[in-house]
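Standup notes, protein team

Yesterday: finished cleaning the Azotobacter chroococcum set.
Today: SprT family zinc-dependent metalloprotease structure.
Blockers: none.

Input for SprT family zinc-dependent metalloprotease:
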Amino acid sequence: MPELILARVDACFCQAEVFFERRLARPQVSLQLRGQKAGVAYPRENLLRFNARLYEENREDFLRQTVAHEVAHLVAFQLFGMGIRPHGEEWQRIMQEVYGLPAKRCHDYAVQRRRATHYLYRCQCPDGEFPFTAQRHSLVLRGRRYLCRRCRAVLEFSGERRLQ
């Protein structure tokens, strides 16, 4: 676990405690997040998960904005309860008034999308080609059937795969 992330999490909690004059429970922190999300807060578990790859590629902004963003979620839920909206006025107030940061909902880090394999299914229509995801193809292998909306024929796997 990078010490800078832990230090920033603690600093954000300290700022919130001074601002709200209240002690807050510190979360468990993990760097096991993958994919397009930079961070995720789990208020019920008091857990923060961060994306190690996006941290490595965007250290300065990640520490300043992303860590504060996720901590603000936990602070908001601890102070105002589970009935609030995740990016509602309580969270926005914490971002702006406590941390002095813009209340941005999403990061703008460059994220490489992974290439996905699509399985080609066909029907009787002349242009009846349907690319299925691996998940949908797996459902077909387990017995699920899909019909063409035009000719109502069962879509059949052509045996072809395409990388997209």
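Follow-up from PR in the comments: The chain has two domains: 1-99, 117-163.
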